[in-house]
Structures are given as structure tokens and as C-alpha cells.
Amino acid sequence: MRIELRQIDSDRLIDSLQVEALAEVPQPGRWLAHGGRSFLVLQRRHRYQLRDGRYELASVALQVKPQAQPQDARPWNGGWVIGDPRCRFNARSPLLRCAVLPEGPCERCQHFQP
Fold this sequence. Notes:
Strand content: over 45%
Helix content: under 10%
Strand order of the largest sheet: 2-1-5-4-3
Number of strands: 7
Distance between the termini: 43 Å
Structural class: mainly beta
Number of domains: 2
Radius of gyration: 17 Å
Shape: elongated
């Protein structure tokens, strides 16, 4: 199956790659390393093609943002979060750590509250 990596703001094609199964395609909110670069997947679009009177999945377009995975990113509830998800101020998002100390780290924050 063909996977297209597209820039989120311009829809410009960055690269394309082949995968064996749909399960190998990352969901939004996950990081993808490809060609020595790191991307955050923000959106996933399925593209179908009509074959023999039936629609079949032909390719997947991933809307990505070139971004290195932060050092304090960790898996949480099937996705990724930046910082400590136990803190009540954590955004529980791969894009934003928290409103109190967005640049982090959580250990340095005086408002850390589990």
C-alpha cells in the first residue's frame, strides 16, 4: 500500500513509501521516522479507487509536520503525550505540554500537581 507524506500547511508531497499492511500506518498524534527525519502525524486521509465495481483502499495520505520527537514524550492511553500526564495541568497532547509551563520540563514546574 502506498503512503504519502504531505506537508500539513501546503499539502506539498514530501515523500512516499510502501507498507505491507494498513496497521503499519501511524495514527494522528504519533511520530514517524523516515529517511533520517522525524514527523508528527496530524491527519490521515484514505484514498479509494473503484476496481471491478467495488471501492478499494488505494493509498493513505498523512498530513505531517516535520518535528523531532521531544525527549519527554511518552506513550499514554494509546497515543503520545509530552511531559507527565499525571499532572492535572498537562494537556495530554503530542503538540502541547501544558498551559502553565509549555516549554517544560515538568520536574521544574512549581505548579506540578498529580
